[in-house]
């Protein structure tokens, strides 16, 4: 088992290194800017009040960058590491449910999931919060297991102790030993609370997972653990509250400036809700024609989630933890939109275990009905066992194989990569003025120190250059009609150059003010 474990995690690590140096996109460039321009204290005091996330991820990245720098690979490597550690958490949880073989299948389903691979290469907080909540879930489930085992020991302690002793003696030497095999309730509760607090200081959306797990503990009558956790989290929230109030105020100001900002955050719509299972199963890759994409992605999603649903019948706790955060997030999005699939990335580990559980449940149903025994009439005893084993592994292998295939499509085809600011920055001239929405200029400035002006001021500015360059990135969010403003000045678009998901335009003007008409020169 140890060799298989190393093989799965080694392969998962290797594929995450492919295309790790692709261009940063806007949010990643913001991460780079923050850790370059601000001190640890300034991140909390100056930057975080203007941001929409807690400061923990940026503080961690600031410390990381002092050792490894702010290059593309250095910025993304923590997310790679956190993703692999999340895979280990999946292995631990699933192993507790059945055995190490089952745990490794579940871990592989997570590690090769195309959406997990995509966000394991992003210099944002989503990989970190997924890691934190996955281990919080592990310690939470261990608390429940410890309580249930304690109850069993009260019934017949000697028998269960003997069984546990024999089980430990029979464990193969190549088994994967967990360093998290904690049997002390207070230690488990300490780690459970610690990881929940860290998650809430990393990503506010963690609250839906936290609330769901606390409700699960309540249904299991773990009132003391819930009470302690609520008190601890309340103290943590009280420390966060001043920052959160400031961020909410600034968010309201931004929504007035950017009239379509709510669409970016993700309103509570059926489309956004349906995108969650599609992206969870098919990843970020897309293609034309869209009709064909939706057919293929829909069929694959239906296949994957048929096992999620089957697993939910068998593992009701996991089903509860998987579904309730989505429901809470959907309801909350009617008041403050955040219904985008990547904000629920922390549910992928739970989904992976549910898929594995669903496959096992499906096979058990088939065996009970006798469908797997028809080959007994044609094969010898040794051949029967081999055939059965192949059939049992086939579904898992298909799921993991297609997950890996979708991940490799993303990794090897730049069409599915992030916005290509790197290439565009190298083409733009240094001696020309570039206009764009300044809050969106971080990726351009990360690659080249080009002269950039605020596009929204172009109506009142004098334009002295004959040629100007426009990067209309995020213009639809702000609802700014830059084309109309430039046409009123007598300018016209001469060229449009497109890169992956970004482009710039070259406009030709004369010596113009806001009160002048176009004067053709040369």
From TrEMBL:
Residues passing through the membrane, by range: 73-95, 102-119, 125-144, 187-216, 228-249, 261-285, 291-310, 317-335, 394-413
Keywords: Cell membrane, Glycosyltransferase, Membrane, Transferase, Transmembrane, Transmembrane helix
Predominant cellular place of this UniProt entry's protein: membrane
A GO term, aspect molecular function: pentosyltransferase activity
GO BP annotation list: lipopolysaccharide biosynthetic process
Keyword Cell wall biogenesis/degradation in record: no
Ranges for domain Glycosyltransferase RgtA/B/C/D-like: 53-145
Entry keyword Transferase: yes
Cellular localisation: Cell membrane
CC per GO annotation: plasma membrane
Membrane topology qualifier: Multi-pass membrane protein
Protein known as: Glycosyltransferase RgtA/B/C/D-like domain-containing protein
């Amino acid at each position: 088992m140890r060799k298989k474990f190393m093989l799965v995690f080694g392969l998962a690590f290797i594929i995450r290194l492919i295309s790790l140096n692709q261009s940063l996109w806007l949010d990643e460039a913001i991460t780079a800017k923050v850790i370059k321009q601000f001190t640890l204290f300034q991140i909390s005091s100056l930057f975080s009040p203007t941001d929409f996330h807690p400061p923990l991820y940026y503080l961690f990245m600031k410390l990381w960058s002092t050792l490894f720098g702010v290059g593309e690979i250095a910025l993304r490597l923590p997310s790679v590491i956190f993703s692999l550690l999340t895979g280990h958490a999946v292995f631990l949880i699933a192993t507790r449910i059945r055995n190490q073989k089952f745990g490794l299948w579940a871990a592989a389903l997570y590690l090769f999931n195309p959406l997990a691979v995509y966000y394991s290469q992003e210099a944002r907080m989503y990989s970190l919060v997924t890691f934190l909540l996955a281990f919080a879930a592990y310690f939470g489930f261990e608390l429940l297991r410890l309580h249930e085992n304690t109850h069993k020991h009260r019934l017949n302690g000697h028998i269960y102790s003997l069984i546990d002793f024999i089980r430990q003696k029979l464990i193969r030497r190549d088994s994967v030993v967990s360093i998290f095999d904690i049997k002390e309730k207070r230690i488990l509760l300490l780690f459970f609370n610690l990881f929940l607090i860290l998650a809430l200081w990393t990503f506010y959306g963690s609250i839906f997972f936290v609330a769901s797990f606390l409700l699960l503990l309540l249904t299991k009558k773990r009132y003391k653990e819930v009470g302690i956790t609520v008190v601890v989290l309340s103290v943590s929230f009280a420390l966060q509250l001043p920052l959160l109030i400031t961020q909410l105020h600034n968010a309201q100001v931004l929504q007035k400036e950017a009239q379509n900002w709510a669409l970016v955050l993700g309103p509570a719509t059926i489309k956004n809700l349906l995108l969650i299972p599609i992206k969870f199963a098919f990843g970020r890759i897309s293609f034309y024609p869209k009709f064909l994409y939706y057919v293929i992605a829909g069929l694959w999603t239906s296949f994957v989630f048929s096992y999620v649903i089957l697993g939910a019948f068998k593992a009701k706790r996991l089903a509860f933890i998987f579904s309730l955060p989505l429901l809470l997030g959907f309801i909350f999005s009617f008041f403050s939109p955040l219904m985008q699939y990547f904000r629920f990335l922390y549910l992928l580990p739970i989904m992976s275990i549910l898929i594995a559980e669903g496959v096992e449940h499906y096979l058990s149903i088939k065996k009970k009905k006798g469908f797997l025994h028809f080959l007994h009439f044609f094969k010898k005893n040794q051949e029967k066992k081999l055939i059965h084993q192949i059939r049992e592994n086939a579904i898992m292998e298909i799921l993991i194989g297609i997950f890996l295939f979708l991940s490799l499509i993303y990794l090897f085809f730049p069409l599915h990569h992030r916005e290509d600011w790197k290439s565009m920055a190298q083409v733009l001239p240094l001696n020309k003025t570039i206009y764009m929405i300044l809050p969106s200029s971080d990726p351009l400035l990360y690659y080249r120190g080009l002269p950039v002006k605020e596009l929204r001021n172009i109506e009142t500015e004098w334009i002295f250059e004959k040629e100007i360059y426009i990067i209309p990135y995020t213009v639809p969010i702000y609802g700014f009609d830059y084309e109309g403003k430039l046409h009123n000045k007598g300018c016209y678009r001469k060229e449009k150059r497109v890169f992956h998901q970004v482009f710039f335009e070259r406009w030709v003007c004369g010596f113009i003010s806001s009160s002048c008409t176009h004067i053709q020169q040369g």
